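Posting this for the archive.
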Amino acid sequence: MPLAWSDDYTTGDAEIDAQHKQLFQYLADLEEHMNGTIDDAYVKRFLDTLGLYTRSHFCYEEICMRAKKCPVADKNKEQHAKLLDAYTQFRHRFDVEGASTDLISRLHAFLESWLVNHILKIDTHLKKCNP
């Protein structure tokens, strides 16, 4: 069952919330593909898209937090770096081994857990920083 957006995830910044919703959609798409045939072309496209979108989102979010003097801005940036390190490891594994059920399952579980925890524990602090 795909991860569903709820008001608990709102940050008070409409653009960041829209970007988070897009990340939820990427996860739903991945989950849908987990139940079918997993092929290298799809996984490569997914990883390429996720990598570009995530970097763009992180950049926007970090600028927003700094501009609003959010007290968790540094922690946010650290957590983003950790996610990008994990992404690089998943990408490397795919480049070496190709697509597999295990890779996709681990990637999905990691991304879902990270996204929920990061939004709830870090990003929602923006609510208090919005005028």
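Residues 100 and 109 are 14 Å apart (CA to CA). The domain at 12-129 is CATH 1.20.120.50 (Four Helix Bundle (Hemerythrin (Met), subunit A)).
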